[in-house]
What we know:
The structure holds two protein chains of two kinds.
Chain A: H1 11-23, E1 44-51, H2 56-72, E2 76-83, H3 86-99, E3 105-108, H4 110-116, H5 127-131, H6 154-158, E4 161-162, E5 165-166, E6 169-170, E7 172-173, E8 176-181, H7 182-187, H8 198-208, E9 228-230, H9 233-244, H10 260-274, E10 278-280, H11 281-284, H12 287-292, E11 298-302, E12 328-332, E13 343-344, E14 349-352, H13 358-370, H14 374-381, E15 387-388, H15 391-394, H16 397-404, H17 415-427, E16 431-432, H18 440-459, H19 466-479, H20 503-536
Parallel strand pairs in A: 1-2, 1-3, 9-10, 9-11, 13-16
Antiparallel strand pairs in A: 3-14, 4-5, 6-14, 7-15, 8-11, 8-12
Chain B: H1 2-23, H2 31-36, E1 42-52, E2 59-66, E3 69-77, H3 80-83, E4 91-101, E5 104-114, E6 126-127, E7 144-153, E8 156-159, E9 162-165, E10 171-172, E11 186-192, E12 195-201, H4 211-217, E13 224-230, E14 240-246
Parallel strand pairs in B: 6-7
Antiparallel strand pairs in B: 1-2, 1-4, 2-3, 4-5, 7-11, 7-13, 8-9, 10-11, 11-12, 13-14
Amino acid sequence: MTRGMKLLPLCGLLALCLLLAGCHGTAGRQALSIPETFDETRPIELTFWAKNDTNRTQVDIYEKAIADFQALYPSVTVNMRLYTDYGRIYNDVITNIATGTTPNVCITYPDHIATYLTGSNVVAELDSLMADPNYGLGGSRLKFDGPDREEIVDQFLSECRLDGRTCALPFMRSTEACYVNKTLVEALGFELPETLTWDFVWEVSEAAAEKDADGVFRANGQKVMIPFIYKSTDNMMIQMLKQKGAGYSAPGGEILIFNDETRALLLDIAEHVKKGAFSTFKISSYPANFLNAGQCVFAVDSTAGATWMGSDAPLSDIPADQFVAFETAVYPVPQFDPEHPQMISQGPSMCIFNKEDPQEVLASWLFMQYLLTNDVQIAYAGTEGYVPVTVKAQNDPAYQDYLSRAGEDTGAHYDVKIKASRLLLEHTADTFVTPVFNGSTSLRDAAGQMIENVTKSIRRKQTVDDAYIDKLYADMISLYRLNMNGGQEVSGSARADLGPLPKTAVILLAALAAAWVLIGLYVLKQAAARKKHRKIT
Amino acid sequence: MKKIMTLVLAVVMALSLFACASADDVTVMTHDEYVAAEMDTEVTVETYVQAHQSWWNDQITVYAQSEDGAYFFYNMACSQEDAEKLVPGTKIRVTGFKSEWSGEVEIVDATFEIIEDAEPWIAEATDVTGLLGTEELIDHQNEFVAFKGATVESYKYSKGDETVDTEAAFAYGWDASGAEGTDADLYFSVNVNGETYTFTVEYYLCNETTEVYEAVRSLNVGDVIDLEGFLYWYNGVNPHITAVAPAAE
């Protein structure tokens, strides 16, 4: 089992390399000129870098989509390279931009595209392609029934616009959900509210953290209980700040996260960690592993991880004999203001890389559009708690039928998965994304790392107070180079305070200073003695 | 005056030595002391590098062992220059926090120094074939171990109530969702004493350039093999295999 995403945090260094490559023109290409006709008389080979959630069914859907597309366009061959990690795709794209060997079509995150865009015309701008009457969205010469421009969910498409240009198309969308062991909540004497609030989650979690004299948790009768586990602490911090109306970043790249609201949130989280109420994926493991074993009450993870959640989860990493029977409720992430819920929008997007041959780019564009057809969208969305990115697919009778059959089985119609999809469908208007700029990936890493550090420090019996937060802010700015990224400024009260010197260093420095003072005194005394001697002689 | 200066400088030197000595004043634990230490406490151990995963982003994950027990250092702070010095056998002193992740007891947020003058030491593989399926196996967690006479089965994985049989001797990724040419771990199943166990070739430890990666890709169902690797844990035993060979007669 490969843990975490070890390739993701390379943004700063690689972005710098890319900027250099882009500035010197090695990666530069001419802007695309759309051919009037797609030439099907000569073979074209496309490379498609695809990401799956370690999910064989998703791989099968990609393979079928490629086969179906090739049947429509026999002159085009699509070679797929599979990834299970966005960070790895990002890393490989950066490497291949420098050598001019990018793929044609790539699944990616908008944050990453912002870095790709620092090269000259590396990524194909899609506005003119989308509007082309022949081959654009809903174009007259398409051999498949793709969506019109108006049939792509506006909210999702707008997430792919960078600096006023459409640089990607959404492929799937998800958000985060709080998967709740409803049975345990009720056993603890609580009733789940209509909207889950942070106060409620913390209150129940602290109740669930109580042990008896033998160290057994009263809530589940086991030796292990982590009442509240969060998978992506970067999302946790980003959503908390958004719900509070506090600063995170501005569209121009200004960094606002190091503010008093962040400080208050971190200090509050620290108090709950002290009571044993909270931990994270990085510290403890996958939320699903604890939830399914009856060792967790609130597990926050992506809706795209819904098939791992619950007593009857189709996918699991824990042995069958560790499963515990309970009822799973699926909620949006906890809120500060239940009347105005806010949650993150996430999920894969697709971009096209420019090539010398406009026909190759056009073929890429056709394939990318094909991935938005109802067959592909509905099939892929059904693999997890995703939703299709087109209203055309969302309104398709086949998709509506799928949604209506929640709970019919624990496979294709697994109820937790379909509830997770419904959650996003019902709350699409309540979703948001954070500004994308060159460096936004690093800021996201820092947002999560602050929660991780505070949580670890409390577990290690360290003091988390204002001085700790001051140092944490300074460490994050330095570690993620947040104040060194072209034009970005750090707002707030963060200072580069590295804390007091160690005692041993103070002793050493004092001793050296004393030695220099005494050497100085000795030299002065000798000089005075020589002067006196000269006078006498 | 000269006498006073001599005296003062001697005191300065003594203080400097004291300062340096204090900075180095740490208690190195035995393996038993490490096992007895509470979770989330700071620990310092001296041990020998046996292998490591690929260096990345100023971090490295190390499999280490001493004569009294083994350790796993997850994402230890390490420069690329220092990573090149962590060859098998190198003695290191590691300070970090004892932690547990899905059953794997490890040291995290660690820093290390190389003990330059130490003789290198490399562990012999301990045969734990007979301990598979027993509670004693976890006593060897993280050690370099051997499994003898295992029979390769077709790789199967669970999907809900269904068991999917890949009908192949190995899979890229636990559910065959990976592919050749990516960073996919290899998963394969072996039968030992009538029970099936799943073993892994962890890509970041042994990638496609290694003999073991190629050896596993060449396995056939029914092959009888001997294996070596590190006794990693993920919700149960999940050895990271480093060598596969036809079973010795």
